[in-house]
């Protein structure tokens, strides 16, 4: 090869093959909460197939299992625990200042 042709070739990168997130023995089911919880964000949203590294068939089964778990109230539709806690703290502070002004 000429030197001019070698300049345009990209060097081969070695990469580590990642293990699939769902093993062949894992059963995708709405009762399998440890498996389902891996594919949900902190807000309670279903993560995309690209992020999960799932096949199309696996992603469909995970989505159906998550929706079934939500309907059976095993999973919340939205996870707003942090916001509620912050609002309660603010509300408690407001109440405590209001009490001191009315009693004094």
TrEMBL record:
The gene is rps18. Part of the 30S ribosomal subunit. It comes from the Eukaryota. One of its GO terms (molecular function) is structural constituent of ribosome. GO terms for cellular component: chloroplast; mitochondrial small ribosomal subunit. This is Small ribosomal subunit protein bS18c. The keyword rRNA-binding applies. PANTHER family: 30S RIBOSOMAL PROTEIN S18, SMALL RIBOSOMAL SUBUNIT PROTEIN BS18M. PROSITE patterns: RIBOSOMAL_S18. Gene3D superfamilies: Ribosomal protein S18. It is found in: Plastid, Chloroplast. HAMAP family: Ribosomal_bS18 (MF_00270). It comes from Arachis hypogaea.
């Amino acid at each position: 090869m000429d030197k001019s042709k070698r300049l345009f070739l990209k060097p081969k990168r070695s990469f580590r093959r990642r293990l699939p997130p769902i093993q062949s023995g894992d059963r995708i089911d709405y009762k399998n909460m440890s498996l389902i919880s891996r594919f949900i964000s902190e807000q309670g949203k279903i993560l995309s197939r690209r992020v999960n590294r799932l096949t199309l068939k696996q992603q469909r089964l995970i989505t159906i299992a998550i929706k079934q778990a939500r309907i059976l109230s095993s999973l919340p539709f939205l996870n707003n625990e942090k916001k509620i806690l912050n609002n309660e703290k603010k509300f408690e502070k407001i109440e405590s200042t209001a009490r001191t002004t009315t009693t004094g």
